[in-house]
Amino acid sequence: MVTTANQPTSMNKVLAQVPEKWNLPRTADSDWWWQVLGSQFKAMLSAAGYSIFDQSSALVFFYQWYSWKWGFGDGAPEVRYSIEPIGHYAGAAPDPLNQNLTCDFLAQLFRSGQQGLDLEWFNHFKHALLGPGTPASKAEVASQSTLFVAFEISSGTISVKAYFIPVDAPGNSASDQISRAIASASCPNLAARNQLDIFLRKDVYGRTVKPFMLGIDCIGPAESRLKVYSRSRVTTFELVRHVMSVGGQRKGIKKAENQLHKLWKLTLGLPDDFPVDKELSYNSHETAGVLFYFDVAPKSALPDVKVYIPVRHYGPSDAVAANGLVQYLKSQSQGIYAQKYLETLKVFATREGINNSNGLQTYISCAYKNGALVITSYLNPQCYHPSWFSTT
Prior knowledge:
By secondary structure, the protein is of the alpha+beta class. Helices cover about 35% and strands about 20% of the residues. Mean pLDDT is about 85; it is low at about 1-10 and about 15-25.
């Protein structure tokens, strides 16, 4: 059964047990989000094996101010979540693209002494991609999301990431804006960015991949990633294989490539003999296609690539995607947390259940590391689903 937003839950007991020194403010807005998402977040932390102290710290941070990264072998997963803070004037004249509250939030977090938080690159890219003179600053721009943040919980610390979505304009594409913003960031080494630009311009598959968003870690620029998020409407595995190797430039990845192909078929419910050059079923949604990110940080000579398997748009159901993932993990001796993952999905599920839903899991991402796959499951809490507001 799904808990409705206006019903008391055990999550109120969690707040009641919080030490007074944390002095959590209670507002109608924060209480609503706590009731809708708090139990889901708590279930993920518990299933991923976080200590009681780390669970409490993460829950308090979540209340005051989701994804599941699978570990290697028997390593415990890590939990992340992303949010777009919504201001009272979002979409109105004072804040047409809902950016003010995110900026205020990060400034407050910085003043609070959040460990490791550095806003140098946030301020640079906010100005370069969304500031005065950019397409995002024009009065005629339709309302859309342009800025959000994410948090990663690891080893007792919470790290912050930021994402910028520039507004496409005639003669000034989001891709061009991102490239210029990176070039103006005083990076000591642009080798990876230059390699990406060449790949996107000259490669037959690369030309189908269109950058639309930039992601950074809110830490010192020397250590931050520069993640160029891009999408292709081509949905063949041949495209995925080619892009993941940056047009064949990355070597020694055959084993990981084969593992990715296996996971691709399992999570999308494809037969084992599904041709690598065959497209997935057509989907007209604006976020359909295959999503990638390219890390072009100054410390890299060649972009690191991650692919996001689009189970939300092309998988038969959440159950097929989840069971396919679990089957793959068990085949790689990584199944120790698999059952807990399935149980966590049931906490997220609406009344229709995961056998009949599609979208609880949005993506399953994969990157190559040391000849193997690093896998992350992305979950959608479906907080606006009608069942949250049901009184029955």
